[in-house]
Amino acid sequence: MKRSLAVPAALSLLLVLIAFPAIAQESKSGSYTKIPTVKGIEMLPRGTTAPEFVVRDLSDKEFRLKDCCGKDPVLLFFWSFFCGPCREEMPMINQMARLYQGRGLHVIGVNLDGKEMKKAIEKFVANEKIQFRIVFDELAGDSFTVADPYGVAGTPALFLVDRKGVISFNVVGAVTADKLKKEIEKVIR
């Protein structure tokens, strides 16, 4: 009898870990294990021209990457409301937005949850006092308009695009504030 209950319990636990990977990522100390990513998807490499995209933001205004690229550096932060590491990294990204806003850096939070989550995301943005623009990635069939061309296989993911529109830094998973500042300083000059 105990054996017959063990199999469904194990299957239920496996389903929870697959459906909610953020639960398995965060440790009690606040550090993270390696972020699980989708196999077979390669992140767009450094030195590559950033793909153009057009999406809508929280205010339903159109955002075009080309309106920033070629003039100013852009930090793209791919995130999900349901991603624990994304939410933990959000204050640091917000700090970078405040720190570098007068120096021309555009910080864009690319949300992967869809407009169906707009109210929850608006509340989160207000509660956290997020000071950078949030845009919604959109599904076109089975593909994301923004995340797929960039090769985003997990969140959080960051892409720093220089003034020429070229990716100068990228990472999936947590990054330290010092490391990100160092990379931003290279493209702000």
Write the layout of secondary structure elements.
Layout: H1 2-19, H2 21-25, E1 54-57, E2 62-64, E3 74-79, H3 84-100, E4 106-111, H4 118-128, E5 133-136, E6 139-140, E7 143-144, H5 147-150, E8 157-161, E9 167-172, H6 177-188
Parallel strand pairs: 3-4, 4-5
Antiparallel strand pairs: 1-2, 1-5, 3-8, 6-7, 8-9
The coarse overall form would be globular
Characterize the main sheet. 7 strands, mixed
The first-level CATH class is given as Alpha Beta
Number of strands: 9
Q: How much helicity do the residues have?
A: 25-40%
Secondary-structure element order, N to C: HHEEEHEHEEEHEEH
Q: How large is the radius of gyration?
A: 18 Å
| Domains, number | 1
Return the CATH topology.
Glutaredoxin
CATH architecture identity: 3-Layer(aba) Sandwich
Mean pLDDT, as a whole number?
82
Quote the beta fraction: 15-25%
Side-by-side strand order of the widest sheet: 2-1-5-4-3-8-9
Give the helix/strand class: alpha+beta
Instruction: Identify the CATH homologous superfamily.
Output: Glutaredoxin
In angstroms, what separates the terminal alpha carbons? 68 Å
Number of helix segments?
A: 6
pLDDT < 50 runs, ≥5 residues: 1-36
